[in-house]
Write a structure and sequence with these properties.
binds phenylalanine, about 350 residues, alpha+beta, BirA Bifunctional Protein, domain 2, 7-stranded mixed beta sheet, about 40% helix, single chain
């Protein structure tokens, strides 16, 4: 065997041992030990290099090149192993620095709009008592919105509403009351319905007014229906919506389509009816929620009911109003501003 052949097999055996040592090096320190043992000044390669002197002079340059190539290969493998170890260490340190018990960012999930939530809760109460939920058109004839409700064209009550007219005979309904008319025309007595929905008035926008808002209408007509039934139903409703402490009072009022008429208030939850300097109720101790009364005989006649046979009550109430009180809000505009997290962030 020539000197070159034996040099080459020595280098091959050495490379194999180098590979094994490298594979067993688990950290930077171990890696350095491998480097010193093979490539260091008194390492294995240096020992082989010394052997060049024993070769015939003609073979020495080639032997030098072969050894240099082997050294380069080993150095490349060392560098690769170093990179591999470093990124594994980084990976481990990242794992250690993540506190898996730390609360994550809140998921950006939606919530039911508080006005709809209130409408759903109102509907749940009334349907449990045998009422039907009906919906009607937001574009109404002025005949249904006004005339059939005992508001003739020259009636001052029309002026106060400042309506949006689409045509001389078509209006964006100013209240949900025209559905009293539509429902009674469609079904004979007895009738018990509620009507949640949008209503429109040409109001300037401020903390308490929007030109589009929601109402829920209630109507119950039959033999022997009286005001006490209305009072009982509303008291039950507001105890369910606000809590068992809730109290309702009625104040004499006027609506052309009810007689007698009354506005109803709920006792202020913030001051328990004490008033004084209470900001929630403005000091009155009560919060105005809507209008009500006994259905006017003229309205019953207009839909073909006989006021000598049947009587009934009706009420109409703003849903934003209720929702604001339930969630302790003080600006109605928040309902339509679409701020992210608005509904989820309510009390
Ligand atoms: N429609 C009236 C309003 O919008 C409220 C109301 C409804 C009054 C039913 C009496 C009976 O103000």
């Amino acid at each position: 065997m020539s000197g070159m052949d034996s040099l080459e097999s020595t280098l091959a055996a050495l490379a194999a041992r180098f590979d094994d040592a490298l594979a067993g090096a688990a950290n930077a320190h171990a890696l350095d030990e491998v480097r010193v043992a093979f490539l260091g000044r008194s390492g294995e390669v240096t020992a082989v290099r010394r052997g060049i002197g024993t070769l015939p002079p003609a073979e020495r340059p080639t032997a030098g090149k072969v050894i240099n190539a082997a050294v380069e290969a080993m150095e490349a493998k060392l560098a690769a192993a170093r990179t591999r170890l470093e990124s594994a260490a980084l990976e481990r340190s990242l794992e250690d620095s993540i506190d898996v018990s730390f609360p994550g960012p809140a998921a950006n999930i939606g919530a039911i709009h508080p006005v709809r939530r209130t409408a759903i809760d109102v509907a749940r109460y009334f349907t449990r008592h045998g009422f039907a939920v009906v919906l009607g058109p937001e574009i109404e004839t002025d005949a249904n919105n006004f005339d059939a409700l005992n508001i003739p064209p020259d009636h001052p009550a029309r002026e106060g509403l400042d309506s949006f007219y689409l045509r001389p005979d078509l209006v964006l309904r100013t209240h949900t009351s025209p559905m009293q008319v539509r429902s009674m025309r469609k079904h004979g007595p007895p009738i018990a319905i509620i009507v949640p929905g949008k209503a429109y008035r040409r109001d300037a926008i401020d903390a308490r007014h929007l030109y589009m808002f929601h109402q829920v209408e209630g109507l119950m007509v039959g033999r022997g229906i009286h005001f006490g039934h209305l009072k009982g139903m509303l008291l039950g409703l507001f105890r369910e919506l606000f809590g068992p402490w809730a109290d309702v009072r009625f104040r004499p009022s006027f609506f052309p389509f009810t007689e007698p008429s009354a506005e109803f208030d709920v006792k202020c939850p913030a001051c328990d009816g004490q008033g004084g300097t209470c900001r929630t109720c403005g000091g009155s101790g009560w919060i105005e929620l809507g209008g009500s009364g006994m259905v006017h005989p003229n309205v019953l006649r207009a839909v073909g009911y006989d006021p000598d046979e049947v009587t009934g009550w009706a009420f109409g109430c703003g849903l934003e109003r209720i929702a604001m009180k339930r969630h302790d809000m003080n600006d109605i505009r928040a309902f339509v501003e679409n701020a992210p997290g608005f509904a989820a962030g309510l009390a």
